[in-house]
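$ run holo --ligand "pyridoxal-5'-phosphate" --emit tokens
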Amino acid sequence: MKTIDLRSDTTTRPTPAMREAMARAAVGDDGFQEDPTVIELEERAADLLGKEAALYMPSGTQSNLVAALTFTGPDERLVGVQGNHVAYTLRADPRIAPLTKPLFLPDMGRGCSDPAALRAAIDGPGDKITMLMLENSFNTAGGTALTLEETAPHVAIARERGLAIHLDGARVFNAAAALGVPAATLASVADSVTFCLSKGLAAPVGSVLCGSRDFIQQARVHRQYLGGTMRQAGIIAAAGIVALETMIDRLPEDHANAKYLAEGFAQIPGITLPYGVETNLVFIDVSGTGMSAQDVATRLDPGGVRLGAFYEPSILRAVTHYEITREDCDIAIAELDRLVASVPVG
Ligand SMILES: Cc1ncc(COP(=O)(O)O)c(C=O)c1O
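-- output --
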């Protein structure tokens, strides 16, 4: 029985072409910047994102932390919105939180704060805010693909006040595909951008942080101090190069499957869709089924369908990716339908 794993696009396993490239990758010590495959990945990533230089990172989380450490000094802080992935990772550990002292403003919908609130925060008392964090696609509430028009007021305020802008583009290629623009266009508003190779692009490990040469030089030092230097990393970077070559252009297929899945789920009594579906993330609210999200996930699992119960108690997430076919979507819809029909609403 095939497991239809819709919990995340991080579950994707490397393609045969990736494994082949990994086996024959030329490698060196990336701590000395002597790994030719890492260098090639970094150059290609910088080109794709329209930046001067790039740095191969172990994860999106570390990439965001390194960007934050590079753009904020000891008595400075960054600002983002509630729901940003970093709102969790930069604050979760009380020993890490003081490093960047992040401030998260209420999300007015679609991953953006009220511009007036942003201006007031920057001009307010306390530690100086030197960095604005944007996230595109915005992943907590729908996988929203933010247009340049939507972020323009925030970008303008940041520029006016001299803040650096970092884009957490873990899934920026999904956002770009949804909007029909190059990823470099979405990254053009930011001084730095990070994207994940290990999500919808299906590489086994890593993210790439892109920015100016000067920024990357400083970021390289922060990466080292955080323990992120990866030596003969060409072995995994080789899969990243294949990901850039082969996985970006097929993302619209995942988006079409996500819409199909959402339409199927929405037909099931008691299931509602709290957000629109713009990229490869589908959120469903199961309040009307008499079950919690965790109940639903637990009961579907033995039948081979996995959904993510990571958010509010009634919200489940389904993420499409290259291992999910249209037929898998049909099975997932049928399994959820069968489960809901078997549970009397109390
Ligand atoms: C928007 C966003 N940023 C960062 C990350 C973290 O990436 P990683 O799991 O590679 O640390 C994620 C992971 O889901 C994400 O969705």
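-- notes --
The chain has two domains: 10-246, 250-342.
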